[in-house]
Amino acid sequence: MRQVRAKVIRKEKLLGELERPDARTFNRPEARNTSGSWLVWLRCPEIARESEPGQFAMVRCGEECPLPRPFSIHRVNDKGDLALFFAVWADGKGTEWLSQRQKNDTVELFGPLGNNFTLKPGTSKVLLVAGGMGIAPLLFLANQVLKDGLSVKLLRGASGEYKPSGKPNPSQHYPEELLPRGIEDVKTITTSPDGREKMVLDLLTPEVINWADQIFACGPTAMYRDIAKRKKELGLLEKSVQVSLEMRMGCGRGLCYACTVKTKTGLKQVCKDGPVFELDDIIWDEIASNI
Ligand code: FES
User: 32-47 pLDDT, tens per residue?
Assistant: First the structure.
């Protein structure tokens, strides 16, 4: 784990206004995204070169945020740059601060932290299931396994507005042109206006499940709970499904216990024992629905 002061190399706004899947379900108007989703590249070779897909970094986000904030590592490049992809929600002071940094500003962060996605011996076909901003750590994994010659399919979903024409608004989805080259198949779905139909899980068909050797998912807890409940019906009993958990964190280093979850093998800390877990290891009913 390294602690560094990194320069902002580049910043781009990638998506327009979004809504968290839980914003309506739990009547949380503050969960609306107010200023879009951002891609921020930081020059920090010390962290970038040690990072593995699934890991995260803690970023100090200005004086108004006494605690550092966790961000999935989204990409790294050969120059030692590291990208963070995040949405700025109305209740997100830290993300708002980060989105306002300009080129050459300095950002303090430490990482890489946590465990990473792991490929089992013999895996050659990888299925990625991304709910909303969950695409952030999955594209790092996609880049790496594509370089190693594996086949990758991506299912992605986003909640969000419909255009007046009734068509899903494509601005809710990570831009197609920034997806790693070589993904065999990208299926995209946008949640209907009532939030009930057309979830990313509707793309999880027996055909695509049979194709995959391993499945990696990142998205809201409700999505994981649904997959866990429907494992048999979906034909997933024999498949390894690794999920990346997003939790509120304090220290990011296993010291404060703010990120504790119940698993079948006891209490675990998401920052230290995760954020990647086998779907079956988590006791989903013990995790709050609005995380
Ligand atoms: Fe402090 Fe995980 S954030 S123990």
Answer: 556 688 999 999 999 9
Phi, psi of 97 (to 5 degrees): -60, -45
Task: Out of 113, 245, 249, 291, give the residue to mutate to test ligand 1, the one with the largest number of ligand atoms within 8 Å of its CB.
Answer: 249
Q: Tell the residue number behind the tokens 């995959």, with chain if given.
A: 212
- Count of Cβ atoms closer than 10 Å to residue 122 Cβ: 7
Atom number in ligand 1 closest to CA 270: 2
CATH of the domain at 219: 3.40.50.80
- Give me ligand 1 centre to Cα 206, in Å: 37
**36 in a domain, yes or no?**
yes
Q: Is residue 258 part of a domain?
A: no
The reply to whether 15 and 65 lie within a common domain is yes
> For residue 234, what are the domain limits?
125-244
Distance of CA 162 from the midpoint of ligand 1 (Å): 38
Does residue 235 share a domain with residue 162?
yes
Pocket probe for ligand 1: among 271, 273, 277, the residue whose CB has the most ligand atoms within 8 Å is 271
SS3 107: strand
**Domain-located, residue 261:** no
pLDDT digits (tens, 9 = 90+) for 71-102: 999 999 999 999 999 988 777 889 999 999 99
26 and 61 part of one domain: yes
By most ligand atoms within 8 Å of CB, the mutation choice from 58, 272, 277, 291 for ligand 1 is: 272
Q: Strand 81-89 and strand 106-113: pairing? A: unpaired
Tally the domains of the chain.
2
Region at 12 (left for phi over 0; alpha for psi -120 to 50; beta for the rest): beta
